[in-house]
Amino acid sequence: xxxxxxxxxxxxxxxxxxxxxxxxxxxxxxxxxxxxxxxxxxxxxxxxxxxxxxxxxxxxxxxxxxxxxxxxxxxxxxxxxxxxxxxxxxxxxxxxxxxxxxxxxxxxxxxxxxxxxxxxxxxxxxxxxxxxxxxxxxxxxxxxxxxxxxxxxxxxxxxxxxxxxxxxxxxxxxxxxxxxxxxxxxxxxxxxxxxxxxxxxxxxxxxxxxxxxxxxxxxxxxxxxxxxxxxxxxxxxxxxxxxxxxxxxxxxxxxxxxx
Length: 259
Description:
three-stranded antiparallel sheet, flat
């Protein structure tokens, strides 16, 4: 209950204090709009992460974050899983096998990602807008391709690597029964192999194999190829611009009387 009542009040106080500090900084420094959005995004991301971790309670007292399922404690808490990044507090109750775990701090996680998106876009605009020998679209590709790879890893590969053995088994069963209308009498999962690089999560059945991270691995490969290509083009453009820049030559002076 402490987390339920205290977190909104602390969040409102931090928002008010941060807004006052931001207004004073903007009035004194008069930064550009892009810098303003970068600061706003950074502040929102930090506040969202802190809220997702319930200002430290997720690490010091995770049971307090989950609270109580019902007033009469019909579904007592079984365990709590805390993931530092991406921030996630998962509460497992006795009925979680049917309905899945609850995530009481999911809103803070979404706020963190929203602030991170604003920060990344603002910084990208600042970097792309700077004077450079490479064209803007090439610099944009070189900036956004690794960011896309990081997003794929954080949202797809990272959570898969942190699954328990039971959760991996359930994921293999789910992949075998897609679409849900498929009716199978028995699914035999013989082995589950997990590798970090290249990322793969291979489920070995009695009749076949399936890699659950094949789309994510393809996306990471595409982002890597795009980054190398854009970086190469940027270096090539900068080299050509440096060679084609004419040196300062002494031109003959023309007297006004010669015209």
